Amino acid sequence: MERDKIIIRNAIMHILNTNNNHLEFSDSLLDLSIDKYDFIRNHIYKIMDSDDSTECTFNEDSEIRQLMEAFEESNLIMDSQMLAYKLYEIMAMNFSIPPADLFVVPFQEAGTKYLAILKMNYKESYVHKVEKYNSGISNTIAKQKVTLPSLSAKLTEAAVINLRSLKINLIEKKYDINGVKENYFSSRFLQCTPQLSTKAKLNLVSRAMDKIKRKYYPEDYNKIMEYKSLVYQSNLDGEIIPEDIVDDMFPEESEIKQEFIEDLDKNNLTRDSITPKKPATIKKFEQQQLTTDNGITISIPMEQYLNNKNVIIKHAPDGTMEITINDIKSITAR
């Protein structure tokens, strides 16, 4: 989804301030000035462009699904009030869930219509305050407890629903529900079943690799370096397929390969295609970082590591190792 192609059709905001038991429905749509338009569009785009977002499918008995199946933009005020009321009921019974303003925003992109449900949790901030007295003026500061997230902030609870397919892009955070950490936004509010996010998938593959390394190759730094280089190269090719990486790493070790695959199968990741959108998600795979037993840390850009002539690691007969870095034209100290 391209930010500049997002066309906001309308928007409405409701106040869900559980701190003071205040549910305030709006009876009118937002007046979308340029600043408000850009503010809302930016948050929608960041949800769709995030590797933290996950796809979610409505459960058959979901009340929100039924509402979305019959959604008409002409009923936005009433339908958004129903969404706000359902969410507020959950929040009011679970005080760990932060208060917020709820934005409900129909929009379109490339001819497809969507509905964004943006829960903007309050932030505390400070502003200056001018107090006037008979004797003069006193400048001070005041705490604001219901500040909305900034333009650059990332929302932690939001959903974008494709009104044609009813597929959901979801961002959520676990909160304490009856003593248990729960993703209530999907389980109780939307009543949908989320898949793993791109970032979560990649973390699970890396965790499985780390278990194999600790069990079978505790002293072999090469396995982690090989794994990182394969992920890096796969991402450059357009997608990361865990099974292909396992095949490349363990062509002869069938037992280890099978153990790795069984670990991935627990989350249906073996043949899954992982396609990171953001450079930050893959950033740790762009460097090979080595730390020696005497505390020296060397960070090698992956492109240099893959050029076997530039970085050479040799094992000496006495059991020690040598690292040689070639083709250096200058050195900078920090």
Query: What level of helicity do the residues show?
Result: 25-40%
Mean pLDDT: 92
Mind summarizing the main beta sheet? 9 strands, antiparallel
Q: Structural class of the secondary structure composition?
A: alpha+beta
What overall form do the CA principal axes indicate?
A: globular
In total, the number of domains comes to 2
Radius of gyration over alpha carbons? 26 Å
SSE order, one letter for each helix or strand: EEEHEHHEEEEEEEEHEHHHHHEEHEE
How many extended strands?
17
Please give the alpha-carbon distance between the first and last residues.
40 Å
How much strand? 25-35%
Low-confidence stretches: none
Tally the helices: what do you get? 10
Tell me what you see in this structure.
The structure is a single chain. The protein is an alpha+beta fold and 334 residues long. It folds into 2 domains: 3-122 and 148-195, no CATH class; 215-325, no CATH class. Helix content is 33%, strand content 29%. It is built from 10 helices and 17 strands. It has helices at 34-48, 63-69, 76-92, 184-190, 198-216, 221-237, 242-249, 254-265, 279-282, 302-306; strands at residues 7-8, 12-17, 22-24, 54-58, 100-109, 112-121, 123-133, 136-147, 157-162, 168-171, 175-177, 180-182, 192-194, 287-291, 297-301, 311-315, 321-325. Strands 1, 2, 3, 4, 5, 6, 9, 10 and 13 form a 9-stranded antiparallel β-sheet that branches. The protein has a two-stranded antiparallel ribbon with strand order 7-8. Helix 7 packs antiparallel against helix 8 (254-265). The longest helix is centred in the middle third of the chain and has 19 residues, at 198-216. The two termini are 40 Å apart. The mean pLDDT is 92.
